Amino acid sequence: MIAVDKVFILAFPDDLEKKRALFEARLKTLPLPENIPVEIHPLPSITEVNQTLRDYGLLPVEGGIRWEEASRACGHWNVWQRHEQHDAVLVLEEGFLPKSDHYQVLRTDEPWEMIYLGRFAYGSDIPSEARGMVNPGYSNGSYAYMINAAGMRKLATSQYDQNVIPVGEFLSAMHDAHPSEDITAMFAHRLTALAPMKNFIEHEVSVNGTDETAADGYKPLHPGLFEFEGEARETWVKKYVNPQLVQREFDLICDEPIDNVYTFPLFTELFCKEIIEEAEHFGEWTSYRGKDNPPTDIKLDSLGFHDIYSSVLKEFFFPLLYHKYQLKGEAWKRLNAQHFIVRYIAGERAHLGLHNDGSYLSMIVTLNTDFEGGGTFFPKFKKLVKPDQPGYASIHPGLLGYLHGARPITQGKRYILTSFFFMGTQHPFAEGNY
Ligand SMILES: O=C(O)CCC(=O)C(=O)O
Ligand SMILES: [Fe+2]
Asked: Ligand 1 atom 1: the closest Cα is on which residue?
């Protein structure tokens, strides 16, 4: 049971009605006390945020912070002021996504002032007395935490108002896990914090789940990637799609390193370079695929790139797919996909453990080769699939029989685009881990 007496949901003011229904549905899956009051607290919009900061007496640190961070800061700050009215509250930001039901580990008889129900964990956690719980190391994200009156009072009197930084960073400084001593030194008080080893609640980038809205307002670094309508399409294909694939000599360009696993050229090097830079520019790395932290993926939806990417694959990749697997009939044309850009970093998040994808088919596009280690390993076949040129794709059956994982990289960063193809609208991760 999440023992709190009120739930606050901080939400950006657009589409609030639609979000309300979604929040309600998601709250139902949390073990909360019956009839608990829920307050949906609208965050200031981009045009209101400076005035709200002034109204609350909040002063961003030198150099400033992004408006969304400032807006969230206003919302959290407002909640913390209510420490006299509540014993403990649950604070959620829009995008909270209940994912797990291992709440039996949530033991509130341990001393605590704040408990993360979800976070992006970066630093080393310290095991706590309570099984399944840790004293959290450096963490990011302030999208799901419970806090008691003592904790709220500490946050409200910590001098955060004079040093507004992103709330997630601030919380880490407050539980003494921030790597920067300068940042830690800005704030009075320390919090006793706990977190489950495995998140109860995950975060998604956008709660409305449509392709367009998620990336609303996003200014691309490489606008050319997004120019695909009408006449621009031809230029797009020339610039970014591998000419060998366009010529459709599938049997000439495909290798089959493992039975039913194919590799072939799909994109140009320019595409690979630009999409990597675009992802880094976008910067909102998530843990959407439900794997461990720190966050490593960006769903192409959230970048506003899903539709273009799907359309290109339909035109240039699907014919190869039908040919190689000898697919017949109309049903295959209804294959849906989810696409992600994934980043591995040596020494941080360098590998992906063995798994089955749960998809009908999966595709991995190599975007760079300037790293050491890496590649997709299929233990049953004792084969490492590791194209040596950017833009090459590999495809493998995703459901069963092709257990695989990403070999650790030992130096540099490895970027891939990964796609999971499935039938219907039920994506393979709907049920969690795969
Ligand atoms: O990084 C790789 O080579 C494998 C990625 C993968 O298996 C996945 O994303 O499901
Ligand atoms: Fe996989």
From this structure: 406
In short, whether 297's Cβ falls inside 6 Å of ligand 1 is no
CA angle 127, 132, 135 (to 5 degrees): 35
Q: DSSP letter for 340, please.
A: E
**Within a 13 Å sphere around the CA of 319, how many CA atoms are in the beta-carbon half?**
12
Interval between CA 420 and ligand 2 midpoint (Å): 9
Beta strand pairing call for 139-148 and 114-121: antiparallel
- Identify which has the larger pLDDT, 331 or 116: 116
Distance 231 CA to ligand 2 centre (A): 36
The complex scores an ipTM of: 0.99
Is residue 366 in contact with ligand 1, taking CB distance under 6 Å? no
Q: What is the mean pLDDT of residues 299-321?
A: 92
* Two structure tokens written together for 41: 């607290």
Q: Which tokens is 224 given?
A: 């050319």
Q: From the CA of 374, which ligand is nearest? A: 1
Answer for the pair 267, 241: CB distance below 8 angstroms, yes or no.
Answer: yes
Sheet strands (E) in 12-59: 38-42
List the single range of 57-66, 200-209, 247-256 with lowest mean pLDDT.
200-209
Tens digit of each residue's pLDDT (9 = 90 or more) over 170-219: 999 999 999 888 899 999 999 999 998 888 998 875 333 333 334 456 78
Given the CA of residue 376, which atom of ligand 1 is nearest to it?
A: 3
Distance 426 CA to ligand 1 centre (A): 20
**Farthest-apart Cα atoms in the chain, separation:** 72
Q: What is the pLDDT of residue 197?
A: 83
C-alpha–C-alpha distance, residues 215 and 213, integer Å: 5
* Residue nearest to ligand 1 atom 3, measured at CA: 376
Lowest-pLDDT range, 110-124, 283-297, 367-381? 283-297
Cα 79-81-83 angle, rounded to 5 deg:
95
364 C-beta closer than 6 A to ligand 1: yes
The amino acid occupying position 157 is T
pLDDT of residue 284: 85
Q: Quick one: which ligand is closest to 418's CA?
A: 1
C-alpha distances out from residue 414 to 33, 47, 283, 302, 343, Å: 45, 38, 16, 21, 6
Ordered structural domains, the chain, with CATH: 6-203 (3.90.550), 211-422 (2.60.120.620)
Distance 341 CA to ligand 1 centre (A): 10
